[in-house]
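Protocol step 4 of 6: structure prediction from sequence.
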Amino acid sequence: MSTADSFDEVSCPICLDTLRKPVRILSCGHNLCHVCLVEYSRTSTTSLSCPTCRKVIHVDSNSVESFPRNWTVESMIERLSISNKEQPTTSSTGSVRFGGGRNLSSQELIQLQSLVEQDMKERRFDDAIHILRRIVRSVEGYHKINHVINLVRCLFETDQIEEAKEFCKDLQSTLNSENFASATKNICNNCDVDLRQLAEDFVEKDYKTSIRLLKCAFKVIATLHSGVEKLDKLQNTAFRMTKVAQEMSRQNNGNEFKSQFGFMDEITDDMLRVTDVDLKTKCKKIARCLFNKALCFKCTFFYSQSIEDNKQAILLMKAAFGDDAKFYRVVGQCYNNLGAAYEADEQLMEAETAYLQAKHVYEAVTDWNDDDHKQSSIGLTDNNLKRISDQYQNS
């Protein structure tokens, strides 16, 4: 038997390390460490799914003690003298170094990823967590980023929020490393999509973790992407921040958003640095980002900042499109948001002017998704104008 075959024979599919005594053998013929089996069996008292072949195994009243010891494998471990004796090594041929002292080949990692994907697809999150938790604890550096993202998703789905939050902190620390840019080949290009969706899902559970995840997504986008795709991803990140701002406001913590001013500026600044896009497309997408930024400020009661960013967005569109700016929905939305910020700041005359401009643009806009959306937006603006009129009469 080759050394490689021997390693495979005595490796636990849960901890990915050399099997530790006592070794238990399942009815399907696969082996696990006793301690790993105990932890794994906590997800169910009557059955479990083999982490190697996924066969459902019945667990009787004696729990894991009912599974026989594999004396043959225990003897093999002793003969090979590998238990707890290898020194950690780093392979130059595509292996990933694990803390247990043996290299996990790329093929083995692919097989584990396939199991995780299958478990997540079929919503067997507890099964996926057992594999992912071990991988994340053992894999070094940037190799673990995609696994951490999957682990956070599984922990969220099983309501293990506190542990998920800790892994999010670890993820942010890894991405903030000075060596991140040189390690991007190890990271999935679209992992920012998962990060942004996780951030939105986390908003009501813990908006601070949402911010952390969006900052992670921003780091990936800023490093890995370019062109129109980068602009779209950054603009979507700003949009997700509006959900955070709304939740802060709902919890009466709007003042906390002040600490995120710098992050919002980073998003728009990075959009300005994109060069491989035509000017009009770039201006339109930056204006959309400024609109979302202004919406965040309005939700959290920073009215002067909201007014300023709405004005900047409108000026940017006019500079890029001239009189044709009125044909773009984002301009009407900025005027409407500008009116709302003025109104909240009790500047009723300015609010009325902005709402009138919003209605004028909405009636001219040509990029509506459908006519119902157009009529709904015009109707809301009419309601805003009526509300301003009522306030004049009551003052």
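Step 5 (inspection) to follow. The longest strand covers residues 23-25.
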